[in-house]
Amino acid sequence: MKLLPYPHWLVRPLVAAVVLLLSINSGRADDTPQLSSAIVGREFKYVVVRGDSLTRVGARFGVDVSTLAAANGLSASAFLREGQELQIDNRHIVPASWDKGIAINIPQRMLFYFNQPGPIRAFPVALGRPDWQTPIGPFTIVSKRENPEWNVPQSIQEEMRREGKAVTTCVPPGPDNPLGAYWFGLSIPGYGIHSTIAPASIYQFRTHGCIRLHPDDMAEVFPQVKPMTPGQLLYRRLLVAKVGNQVFLEVHRDIYRKEPHPVRSFVEIIRHQNFASSLDWEKVKEIIEQQEGVAREISKHDPEHRSP
After folding, report:
1. pLDDT at residue 58 tops 70
2. SS3 of 194, please?
3. In whole angstroms, what is the distance from residue 220 CA to residue 51 CA?
């Protein structure tokens, strides 16, 4: 077997991961990381408007506050000025294991809507707290409601009681309803996709397990998604895509502590590919270490030819 040109810092974990992968049977197809061929988002400049903060801008475009701040030479607590320009990079790799209906990748905090034959739509979402996790697995949209009433689950009522808050059993439609203006009920009992009255909470792990979309995004998606639309809740903290001659890598924090070894996932994705020798391994190392949550190119580029 021909040895791949892995650098010294990756040799030991790569060998261990390869041995492990070759010694066990592959899991189900939807559990196996795959190479993607699609990226959403772009690099662009954004002009700050009144009321903006790094949290609000990151929530709207699907970028971590720390990543957004670093890209613009700011501290995470920096105050933004009206008219200030920010460089935004919200490129995300589309998970390869699902291509119909809705896919929600929990570590990415992104919802992908495959509105075939149209383009893939992508929206940042808020998901369950680490102590109140969003479930993983297939689902179907079983209901949709406009201006929904929120019947507060018993578990949340108990949390209100523990925290010394007034216990609410039902919240009518209106500006104080956490579900916002739109609700999709899932086949997973007790869970749904809904808009929110707290848009700054988007792209964070802040919910009791449900999936929140920005009010504008939910208003756009609501008329398009029909009952019985299939969906999948995934947990992919590391994704790789090949688009044309470019290879991209995206790595997120292991918020639910379900995928502790990103190198293993990386090996599993690329072991059947023929582009290992064309990768910038220093860039791979940097992306895995930093876990910025943005798709970064890892293709190796030849030095620019210069005339003598």
Report:
1. yes
2. strand
3. 23
Residue 137: left if φ>0, alpha if ψ -120 to 50, beta else—which one? left
Angle at 42 between CA 85 and CA 291, to 5 degrees: 90
Total-model pTM: 0.87
Mean pLDDT of the chain: 88
CATH number of 98-234: 2.40.440.10
Candidates 3.60.20.10, 3.90.226.10, 3.10.350.10, 3.40.190.120; CATH matching 42-89:
3.10.350.10
* Domain range annotation of the chain: 8-37+236-297, 42-89, 98-234
Per residue, the 3-state secondary structure of 101-127, as one string, reads EEEEECCCCEEEEECCCCCEEEEEEEE
Antiparallel, parallel or unpaired: β 101-105 and 110-114? antiparallel
CA–CA dist 308, 306 (Å, integer): 6
